[in-house]
Structure prediction request, 797 residues.
Amino acid sequence: VSKADACFAILAVGAALYATFGGADFGAGVWQLLAFREKGERRDRINARVAHSLGPVWEANHVWLIFALVVLWTAFPDAFAPIMETLYVPLAIAAIGIVLRGSGFAFGHVFTGKGKRRSADVFAVSSLITPFFMGCVVGAIAAGDVEAGGSGDALGWIGPLPLLVGALFVASTAYIAAVFLLDDCRRAGDDLADYFARRSIAAAVVAGGLAAAGLIVLHVDARYIFDGLLDEGLPFLIASAILGLATLFGLVRGWARALRPLAVGAFVMVVAGWAVAQYPYLLPETLTVEEGAGAPGTLTAVIVVFFAALATVGPSLVLLFRLAQRQALE
Amino acid sequence: VALPLADNLLAARELMAFTLGFHIILSCIGIALPAMMLIAEYRGLKKGDEVALDLARRWSKAAAVLFAVGAVTGTVLSFEMGLLWPKFMERYGDVFGTGFAIEGIFFFIEAIFIAIYIYGWKRIRGWAHFWSGVPIVIAGIGGAFSVVAVNSWMNQPQGFRLDAAGDVASVEPLKALFNPATVYEFPHMLLAAYLVVGFGLASIYAIGMLRNPERRSQRRHRLGLLIPLTVGAIIAPVQVFVGDVAARGVADHQPAKFAAMECIYETGDNQTEWIGGICTDDEVKYGIGIPGLDSLLVGYSTSTVVTGLDQIPDDQEPPAHTLLHLAFDAMVGIGTGLVALGAWFGIAWWRKRDIPRTRWFLRAVSVSGIGAILALEAGWIVTEVGRQPWIVWQQMRVEEAVTNAGGLWWVFGGAILLYAALGTFAVIAIRRLARAEDEDEEDGGGPGGVGVPYGPTPEPAGAEAGS
Prediction:
C-alpha cells in the first residue's frame, strides 16, 4: 500500500462518516419537508422531534465534509482543481444549501412561533437541495465528466447518472434518518415511532429501487465503476444488500436496538464498495490515485494528521455521543 | 457570453474579500468569546458569584448561535478556495493544505466541546464544567494559528521545490507552516480577535448603561462591562507592540506592500511618515508628514534606507495605494485609540475602583467595539490588497489562479443578499436571546426557556419519559 493509497482510504473513511452522520442530518430535514401536509400541531411535533434528535451532534456531523474537502485538496490537488472547475454549478448550489441549512438550524433554536416555523422550512428545503446536488457531483465524477487537467463542460453534469445519484442520495439520507428518528422515538416512548417506521420502510424501498436503476445507468454511463462494483466491489455490495434486507426485516418485525447499527452498516458498505470500484481512479478514467497524489512529504503529513485526529477527536466524539444519548434516555 | 478575464478576476476578488471579511468577524467571536465566558465562570466558581456564572451562561449561548453561523460561512470559504482559485489549489494545494488539515482537528474539537459545554450547564457540575470549556479556547488558538499560517505562507512562501515544468516536486509541510511571516501574522491576528471581542462585548454593556443609567450600578451589567474591557485594555498595548514588529517584518519581507501602504515613492533614507492623505502618482496630498519618522520606525534611525515604489517593477506593484495607506492608518489610529481608552479605564480603576463617572467614557466604550472591527478589516485589507498582484508572493499571480467560470458578478450580488440576511437574523437572534434571558429572570424561573443550538431541547410533546 503506497502513501497515496493510504490517503485515498482516508478520503473514503471521511466520505463514509459524512455520508452516515451528515446524511442522517440531511434526511431528518427531508422528513420535515415531507411533513408539509401534516396539521399544525403534528407538524410542530415532527419538527421538534427532528431538532431533538439532531441535538448537540449537529456541528460535529458536518465537520466531516470539511475534513473530506481538505484531504482531497491537500493529498490530491490535481483531482480537486478539475472537479471544482467543471462542477462549479452543483457545488455552488450545495454550498448555498449548506449556508441556508446551518442558519435555519441555528436560528430555529432561538426563534419561537412563526420565526421557528420559517427557520424549519428553510432548513427542510435546503436539506433536500444540498444532498441532491452533492449526489450530482459524485455521479458526474463517476460518469467521467471531470477530466484530469480539464475544466469540462459547465452543464455536462445534467445527465441521467448524476441526476439519479442525486435522487439516490436524497432517498438514502431519508432512509437512514428515518431509522435514527424511529429509534429515538422508541427510546423516548414517542408515538411518532409508527410514523417513522412506515416511512423507513417506504424510504428503504425507494432507495433500493433507485440503487437498482442506478446499476443499469452505471452500466451505460460509467462502465468502469459498474465493472468494479461487480468485481472487487461485489463483497461489499452483497454485505450491504444483506444488512439492508436485515434492516428492512427488523423494521417490519419491530426490532429495536439492532436497527441503527444495521442501517449504518448497509450505508458504509455502499461507500466502501464504491471506493473499491473506483480505485485506482480518482477521476475515472483519466486520473489515478498515484498520478493525482501530491508531494510525498504532504502525504505523510496527511496520514499523521489523520491519526492525530483519531486520537483526539475520537474520544471527544464518544463523550459527546454519550451525553446526547443520555438526553435521549431522559 | 464569456466575460473578459480581468472582469472575472475582479468579481472573484470582491466575492472572496466580502465573504472572508464577513467570516472573519465570526471567527474572532469563535476564538475569543469562549475565553470571556471562561473568565466569568472562573470568577463565579472561585468566589461563589452567581452573577458571574449567569454571565458565563448567557455568553455561551450567544457563542453557540454565532459559532453555528460561523461554521457555515467558513464552509463556504473552503468551497470558494477551489471554486474561485482552482489553479492555485491545483499547484499549491499540497504545499499549504496541511495547515487546513490541522485546522480541521481544531475545528472538530471546538465543535464537540462547545456542544459539551452548552449541554453541560445542566448536567456537569462545578469545575468539571469549567474544564469542559478549556478545549474550546485552546482549539480557537490552534485553529487561528493553522489558518493564519496558510495566509502567512501566501505572503512568504517556502517549504517546497519546483521542477523544471513549474510543478511542485517536493514539500516540507512544517517549513511551509512556520514561514517568516507566521511569526508576526499569527499573534497579530490572535490578539485582534481578543480586541474585537473584548471591546465589542464591553460596548454592548456600555450602550445598555447609556440607555438605562440604573444598570450602571447593577452587578450583572457592571461585570459584563468590566470583564471584557479589562481583557481589551490589557491586550491593546501588547497589540501595538506586535503590530510594530509586523510592520517592520513587512518592510523587510515585502517592500512593495510596505512602500504602497506608506506611500513611499523614492528609495532612500530619512523617509517621511505620512498620516492620512491621498497618494497620487508621485506625491502624498493633504496628508500630515513627519520627516524622518518612517525611517526611524523601520530601522530605529533616520538614516535607514526604505525601498520605494521606484524599485518595484510596474507589473508587480500593489494597486490602490490610497486605500492601502488609509486602511493602514485607520488600523494604527484605532489601535492607538483603544490603548488610550484602556489607559483611561485603568487609571480610573486604580484610583477609585470604579468605572469613570462621565458619560463620555461610556460613549467611548460604546463605539470601541465597532472601532475594533473596523481596525480588523482595515488590517486585512492591508495584508491582502498589499499582496496583489500575487496570490502566492512572487510565485503565482492572481490572474493565473482565477477560475474561468462565468457569472461571478451575479454570484457576488447573491452572496451580498444572502449574507445581509444572515447578519440581520444573527443580530435578531442574539437580541432575542438576551431578552428571553431577562424575561426568565423577571419570572424568577429557572435558566433559559429559550433554546440554543447544541443545547438540550425539551422533550417533544407526546412522549412519555422512560418507556
